[in-house]
Amino acid sequence: MSPIHxxxxxxxxxxxxxxxxxxxxxRELARHPDVGNVVHVEAVSPKQILNHFRGWRSASTxxxxxxxxxxxxxxxxxxxxxxxxxxxxxxxFVIASKRNYLASVAAFNEHIVRWQARRLSRARRRLLPxxxxxxxxxxxPYIRTTLDVLPTDFLVADLIDDVPAQVExxxxxxxxxxxxxxxxxxxxxxxSTSQHVAETFQPYANSxxxxxxxxxxxxxxxxxxxxxxxxxxxxxNINQTMNVDLVDYITRxxxxxxxxxxxxxxxxxxxxxxxxxxxxNVEFLGPLAKSEVPSFFHQCRVLxxxxxxxxxxxxxxxxxxxxxxxxxxxxxxTPVSPADRLSDVVYTAYDKKxxxxxxxxxxxxxxxxxxxxxxxxxxxxxxxxxxxxFVDAVLSRLx
Length: 399
Prior knowledge:
Helix content is about 40%, strand content about 15%. An 8-stranded mixed β-sheet has the order 3-4-2-1-5-6-7-8, sandwiched between helices. It is of the alpha/beta class.
């Protein structure tokens, strides 16, 4: 039987920067023996292209500069297929704006998306003859139009987090929900990162939504012994999901412990982060390329996650926790999934005082058995196993 090809329609322009679920899916699918080629598509606006150029010019490391350069290479011309690895190609759809509030902007976006979708369809036929599965990541401003133009044998929607719940703009939230209402009934299969997300969007789907949680690429984060690991480390976007009050409290209560944060700071958080940065035990290191993250993890004595535990994060399944566990380092977290399900290997804290207690326990931990158990749990949640199950399910449904 001929292999099946995959096209992934992602909603942000961040390939190579953060190693998110969509990127891991693309890379792991491209390695699978039953998969032919994989094309990964992202939407990018002129503003984002300019941001990538600025990021390339100001990159603090060579890895970050390379990641930004790859973003720019796949933008010009639009839908150009750039080889990222064996059997894996990346490209971009250029759109006028990600917020189609004005009718004129929406009409222009639809016109240029249809043109680019036709170009991609032709390129894909030349490169990838055979059966095609499309994975759509909702919501995205170009998804509905693209699916009208791009032929596919099997359509999957991958629902990552409860995105509408994270949006403060009512109009944008409405646009997002319309995307779910329009696309989900057309899908042959719908998957999600959590049971909460599955239950939230089940009314829009024609069949049950299956949960495929996040995971970890074990070899990227394998346990090593750093000569002098120190302090408490965090990697991720520093945005509205971070519990800033908790960070304020623990950094005051543990003045002799260094807290290191790596990741881009959202503009809405800048004043709060500037205030925290004045403390001698707090370091904000800026963004890291995904390839630099494992080294940072191994420099830390303890790794922690300080997401807010509320409706914004209710649908999350943090890849960060799985990656933390793969290092063998002690992990402290608020009860946001998967920490709430993995309390036997994660120091899970439900309030500020308990977080301090758990941090102190983690910082003084000296138990090889706990290290081994964390590594075992990480292995149980390897992306390779997730993708094997996913491909088997697609093939069985398609056949």
